[in-house]
Amino acid sequence: MRNCPKSRTSNRSTFTWALASSWFSHRYWVIHIFYRLYTRPDRQPLERARSKNVDLKRPQYYFSRSCCNTDIDELTEKSGLPEELKKLITLEFASHRKHVQVIKHDAMEKIRRHVLDTASMETRITAITVSIRNQQRHIEEKRTDKTARVLLKENIDKRKALLKRLRAADYKRFEWLLEKLDLVYHATPNPIIPITKKDSLIKLTQIYCDNIRKQQLDDYKKELEKEKVLFDEEKKQTLKWIEEEEKVLGLKQ
């Protein structure tokens, strides 16, 4: 039987396969060369993890009054009750939760925008800050309380999210609140990308190939600049010949 001629598609596929194989072989040898020349960079010391008990180093909130409500305090003074009964109404004999509520109320009075302001970001951050500092003092005394640790972490995350929103919405108000509450805001750092041998070799190979491509383009530009001079001379001669032909044919006066 007569052999059938190869189709164009088969020739094209063999050409592309040969081109791809040559490219992969070139890339393999480049990576192999850089693999031998590769030296691992020195380890850079990372920043120490910030202490979670930063709020304990800040001024703590304590209640500065003896009674939960000023109206009750006035009534006890007018009623003429003995001192033992008056002490039962004061915060000295109140629960710890009541102490925290009073501290939150006093702290929010300095921050809130109006009398009924309880839902703005500033007042919520203030209330969460009081809770955080109270929970941190509690954890310092009872280190085995895992529930308090979980609640503390949740409150810290909530406060950080609110501070981030306030910083984006009103930066002046954000700075004023940090000064009032004596807080330090640390923005989230950029992610640390680990250094690996594979990624480094890929980057070095890419840089090497880019340099080769740039060098070839520069050489081609130089060749075009040299040809430009010859092209300009040929263009002048052609234009001169066209003008002479137009004069001979009487097309141009």
Automatic annotation (TrEMBL):
<keyword id="KW-0809">Transit peptide</keyword>
<keyword id="KW-0687">Ribonucleoprotein</keyword>
<dbReference type="InterPro" id="IPR052137">
    <property type="entry name" value="uS15_ribosomal"/>
</dbReference>
<comment type="similarity">
    <text>Belongs to the universal ribosomal protein uS15 family.</text>
</comment>
<dbReference type="InterPro" id="IPR009068">
    <property type="entry name" value="uS15_NS1_RNA-bd_sf"/>
</dbReference>
<protein>
    <recommendedName>
        <fullName>Small ribosomal subunit protein uS15m</fullName>
    </recommendedName>
</protein>
<dbReference type="GO" id="GO:0003723">
    <property type="term" value="F:RNA binding"/>
</dbReference>
<keyword id="KW-0496">Mitochondrion</keyword>
<dbReference type="InterPro" id="IPR000589">
    <property type="entry name" value="Ribosomal_uS15"/>
</dbReference>
<dbReference type="Pfam" id="PF00312">
    <property type="entry name" value="Ribosomal_S15"/>
</dbReference>
<dbReference type="GO" id="GO:0003735">
    <property type="term" value="F:structural constituent of ribosome"/>
</dbReference>
<keyword id="KW-0689">Ribosomal protein</keyword>
<dbReference type="GO" id="GO:0005763">
    <property type="term" value="C:mitochondrial small ribosomal subunit"/>
</dbReference>
<dbReference type="GO" id="GO:0032543">
    <property type="term" value="P:mitochondrial translation"/>
</dbReference>
